[in-house]
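Troubleshooting log. The previous structure file for this entry was overwritten by mistake, so regenerating from the original sequence record. Sequence copied from the archived sheet and checked twice against the printout by T.R.
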Amino acid sequence: MSVLFVVKIVFAAAVLAIVTFGLLWYIVVHRTYENFNSNYKSKYVIQVLNGIPGFEGLEYHPEGGFTWDEIRNAGVVANGKNSTLKVKISFLENMKM
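Regenerated output below.
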């Protein structure tokens, strides 16, 4: 057998192993984690939050939620330094000219 043939077989086996691992990871770990996460939030987290004044009647909808853009636009999370934003804006204004 030539060395090239052995390298091809080893490469094919490695690719097959990676694809199999990815598929099993998705089926076993990812889906199980998503189910656990949804159940945990709807059963335990909501009960704790409902006990806090101001959060009574809070509901959890796993399919609903905020996109990253909605959170960023609401100013809930820090989006970086204001000076960096001003530099970017002035750069873009200069690009338009």
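DSSP finds three helices and no strands in the chain. Archived copy saved in two places this time.
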